[in-house]
């Protein structure tokens, strides 16, 4: 049984929510305005608050902010009219746990959202009581990454969906893994690349399938979401998700339920959602290639990871961290950069960001005769080419891909179409040329 505060200036909505929750065994206090709710919050402790967003006087967002300040452990669910989901997302950034659109769903659906919020509150309380003091697992160096590390550390303690933004190779998956490690969730970290598979295969990867669901489905297969139960599910390249799958993913994010392909059994998705993209999703929403409602669900807590060219102060400690990892893999734990090598690294733009730098360091470590890496081992194909000579076919192809990606603002699908190649082929070439 929980103490729940229900806030709405519409008596009918307020009564529906209160009656539904009282029948479920909870103790409910009602308030017809934000000001009245603030008075109740000063008089008693509550486990959960459900509040309308648009009310005369104190708004729902202002009330959520006030509630977080006065009762930090209070969970909030906001109620919003259809078409104003963006305002609800703003409320979630201010600390709300989830939102429901009006007209409100059935009593069963309402109770399910409330139960989910209360269960999460209980889990947070348990984890916080047993959590040892820990520092963030990201160690990317200096000033440019400090806001990112701090933001991830803060949001890790919540269940908010996180959208990681940034160019290819900046370390978005590293950030997602760090978020998972700090979250205290007991399940696995599971990742899927939305651009690497076609729509049919990706649906099976996400949701799993039953035996006989399609040709070749000779046995039941658990999907990635099911494998991530109790953990974190990472959707990489979310901007490339096929339109027909966007609606299905939206349903899972909203209802936390799904079925395997070809199945009828409804499964529960108890996962922490993290998505990443190098695309401008707001522009994708405007041009109709990405659903607005899905964007709002994913962008509850956006975090931008800056490109390496904006993190020059991070280069030296980042190289040290990368060389430590490379050295452990190669069995050479004393790997280090010579002064000229570090200077050469600091002069390059690294369009492939951390991934390109890591690949260059690993190649240099393999080529070097001892543990001191000199500048000459870092010269890649582009750096070593004589500018007076015409480019090779590989160099020309790499340049064409880079120009297409720049022209289409990183949109790989449009870049592939412009280049006259398939999306999968483009990904293969990006990997071959270490372009992220």
Keywords:
436 residues; alpha/beta; Rossmann fold; Helicase, Ruva Protein, domain 3; 4 domains; five-stranded parallel beta sheet; 19 helices; 47% helix
Describe the structure.
It is globular and about 80 Å long. By secondary structure, the protein is of the alpha/beta class. A five-stranded parallel beta sheet has the order 2-1-3-4-5, sandwiched between helices. 47% of the residues lie in helices and 15% in strands. The protein folds into four domains: 128 residues, Response regulator (Rossmann fold, 3-Layer(aba) Sandwich), CATH 3.40.50.2300; 162 residues, Rossmann fold (3-Layer(aba) Sandwich), CATH 3.40.50.300; 72 residues, Orthogonal Bundle (Helicase, Ruva Protein, domain 3), CATH 1.10.8.60; 40 residues, Arc Repressor Mutant, subunit A (Orthogonal Bundle), CATH 1.10.10.
CATH topology of the largest domain, by name, is Rossmann fold
Strand content: 5-15%
Shape: globular
The overall average pLDDT, rounded, is 83
CATH class of the largest domain: Alpha Beta
Kindly state the number of beta strands. Answer: 16
Q: Tell me what the CATH architecture of the largest domain is.
A: 3-Layer(aba) Sandwich
Looking across the biggest beta sheet, what order are the strands in? 2-1-3-4-5
What is the radius of gyration computed over CA atoms, rounded to a whole number of angstroms? 25 Å
Describe the biggest sheet?
5 strands, parallel
Question: What's the SSE blueprint?
Answer:
Layout: E1 3-7, H1 11-23, E2 27-31, H2 34-43, E3 48-52, H3 60-70, E4 75-81, H4 85-93, E5 98-102, H5 107-130, H6 146-155, E6 162-165, H7 172-183, E7 189-193, H8 199-207, E8 208-209, E9 221-222, H9 224-227, E10 232-236, H10 243-255, E11 257-259, E12 266-268, E13 272-277, H11 281-286, H12 292-298, E14 301-304, H13 315-330, E15 336-337, H14 339-347, H15 353-367, E16 372-373, H16 381-384, H17 393-407, H18 412-419, H19 423-432
Parallel strand pairs: 1-2, 1-3, 3-4, 4-5, 6-13, 6-14, 7-10, 10-13, 15-16
Antiparallel strand pairs: 8-9, 11-12
Helix pairs in contact: 2-3, 3-4, 6-7, 10-12, 13-15, 17-18, 18-19
């Amino acid at each position: 049984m929980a103490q729940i505060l229900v806030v709405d200036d519409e008596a009918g909505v307020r009564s529906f929510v209160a009656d539904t929750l009282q029948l479920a065994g909870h103790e409910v206090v009602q308030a017809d305005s934000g000001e009245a709710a603030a008075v109740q919050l000063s008089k008693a402790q509550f486990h959960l608050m459900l509040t309308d967003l648009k009310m005369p006087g104190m708004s729902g967002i202002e009330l959520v902010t006030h509630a977080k300040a006065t009762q930090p452990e209070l969970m909030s669910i906001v109620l919003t009219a259809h078409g104003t989901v963006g305002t609800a997302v703003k409320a979630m950034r201010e600390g709300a746990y989830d939102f429901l659109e009006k007209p409100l769903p059935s009593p069963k659906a309402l109770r399910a959202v409330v139960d989910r919020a209360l269960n999460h509150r209980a889990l947070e309380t348990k984890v916080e009581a047993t959590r040892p003091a820990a520092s963030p697992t990201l160690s990317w160096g200096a000033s440019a990454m400090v806001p990112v590390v701090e933001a991830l550390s803060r949001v890790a303690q919540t269940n908010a969906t996180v959208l990681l933004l940034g160019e290819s190779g900046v370390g978005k998956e590293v950030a997602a893994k760090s978020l998972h490690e700090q979250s205290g969730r007991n399940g696995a970290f599971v990742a899927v690349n939305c651009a690497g598979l076609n729509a049919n295969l990706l649906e099976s990867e996400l949701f799993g399938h039953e035996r006989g669901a399609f040709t070749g489905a000779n046995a039941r297969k658990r999907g990635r979401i099911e494998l991530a139960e109790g953990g974190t599910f990472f959707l990489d390249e979310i901007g490339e998700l096929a339109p027909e799958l966007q609606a299905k993913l939206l349903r899972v994010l909203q209802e936390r339920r799904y079925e395997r392909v070809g199945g009828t059994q409804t499964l529960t998705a108890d996962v922490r959602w993290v998505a990443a993209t190098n695309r401008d999703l707001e522009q994708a929403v405007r041009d109709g290639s990405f659903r607005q409602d899905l964007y709002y669900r994913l962008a509850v807590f956006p975090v931008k990871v800056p490109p390496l060219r904006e993190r020059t102060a991070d280069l030296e400690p980042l190289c040290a961290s990368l060389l430590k990892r490379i050295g452990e893999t190669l069995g050479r734990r004393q790997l280090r950069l010579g002064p000229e090598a570090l200077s050469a690294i600091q002069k390059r733009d690294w369009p492939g960001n951390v991934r390109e730098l890591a690949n260059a360091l690993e190649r240099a470590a393999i080529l070097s005769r001892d543990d001191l890496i000199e500048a000459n081992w870092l010269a890649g194909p582009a750096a070593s080419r004589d500018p007076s000579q015409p480019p090779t076919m590989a160099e020309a192809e790499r340049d064409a891909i880079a120009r297409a990606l720049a022209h289409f603002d990183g949109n790989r699908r449009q870049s592939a179409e412009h280049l006259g190649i398939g999306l999968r082929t483009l990904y293969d070439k990006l990997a071959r040329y270490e372009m992220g």
